[in-house]
Structure prediction request, 594 residues.
Amino acid sequence: MSTLQGTRIGFIGTGIMGAPMCGHLMDAGCVATIHNRTRSKAEPLLARGAAWADTPRAVAQGADVVFTILGFPKDVREVYFGADGVLAGLGKDCIAVDMTTTSPSLSVEIAAAARKQGSWAVDGPVSGGDIGAQKGTLSIMVGGDDEPVGRVRPFLETMGAHIEHLGVAGAGQHTKMCNQIVIAGSMIGMCESMLYAARTGLDRAAILAAITAGTARCRSLEAVAPRILKEDFTPGFMVDHFIKDMGIALDESRRMGLDLPGLALVERLYRVASKLGHGRDGTHSLFLALQEILVER
Amino acid sequence: MSTLQGTRIGFIGTGIMGAPMCGHLMDAGCVATIHNRTRSKAEPLLARGAAWADTPRAVAQGADVVFTILGFPKDVREVYFGADGVLAGLGKDCIAVDMTTTSPSLSVEIAAAARKQGSWAVDGPVSGGDIGAQKGTLSIMVGGDDEPVGRVRPFLETMGAHIEHLGVAGAGQHTKMCNQIVIAGSMIGMCESMLYAARTGLDRAAILAAITAGTARCRSLEAVAPRILKEDFTPGFMVDHFIKDMGIALDESRRMGLDLPGLALVERLYRVASKLGHGRDGTHSLFLALQEILVER
Prediction:
């Protein structure tokens, strides 16, 4: 029997990522109380036995550990600090784990506020996308004090294959920023490469096969580029969420006295993609935006 | 016994890549005549039984297939079109294979000149680096007519694990450009990420482990970034050669009416790295250049 059997947890944000993640916790025997902005998206979990709560505060009341995975930093701020927020309901010695990709500074702020009232907060953003969430193979980047991180590790292990504790509050978010900076480079490289390939008039699938076999191999080539060739731009990961992540990374960089010209360029090009109507498409729709603005007719 | 046993080949350019590649051909039973700008670098192959020739023309005379892997497009032009060049010596129906990464337009020009004199030329640039050359696991991107490509395939198979025929002359080079455009994005993303990581003050090895486990995984993270952490900037692949490749890709892009802002930025930053003295260091010394110009003290 799982050591988590019967543990009372809360889960806020049961979307594409959150729903399967919460499902893994329930599979491990956790008793879940959940909340989501759009209730309909929570229905499959409610049908499996989760309890509904009307507010983040109500979710936190009576839960030993509360997990959140939301959209933007302003959502996180509202869900934690609002009058009906998590912190208002979180009990002494209980732990909140924010798995949203958000600002390291905000994670530090939440952890300090939690500590002040005798509870704990940990940041644990993830990498691995919807497929990783479904399979429970996410990479989870954790920041926080040793005690709460040690206590939440068994929960995180139900959702992820790689749990790395990087340091104090905010360290998980900083690590996720490092991850997104790599992805930004990888996406511009892949999209410009596919644009060049298209312009040569050669067989793009053959080109893709050849370069994927060499040192350029990466997930952008293996899993994302084939979807460009199929003209399938539905999101694995959405343009507007990526813009949010890159904006945070740029803000934090400036705060640390660091200029990142590659990241700044990619963020600007993604904002163009969003303006052109691709905000809710997959991040590979950067290809369409570049094609529209960079190719001579 | 290998079907290549006793075949007379020529090999020009026996450096870090060429020496092991020529070695694989000799292992397969080819009888090699070789030439290199710096003769001392050819000594190990000569000691194994290769014959020396003083000019590319002399290499080509009496060889069924000539392989070249050189530095810059001007070297390729000289080695092929010079008075003592490959084309002056290449016999009727014999084949020259240029494995240098060079301009697609130059490959087209060489193939046309070869055809005019009744011989053949094929382009076959590679990906996989010195390790791939040593292990015979290169990815080889081939452009040329079906007949000569079919005839050289058994030779290429001694050097590479993935041989992809992409189209007519120049198609191999175009594909290599697609490869280098991806690498350019990957390198700026990885270097900026490691710069951000350094600035946080967190454990960079732990950050690298965490992000390599997720969707950012790529060769730049797995094989190159660890060398930044060890402060080992010896070249696998040299900055000045990468600048050459990116310059070709930018030229060809413009010729095709295509603007590639990511590639243009990365090329510019690498030129800064070269100016700062890293021209003969590994491509990951971009990290050092960015650190010097982008971090506030």
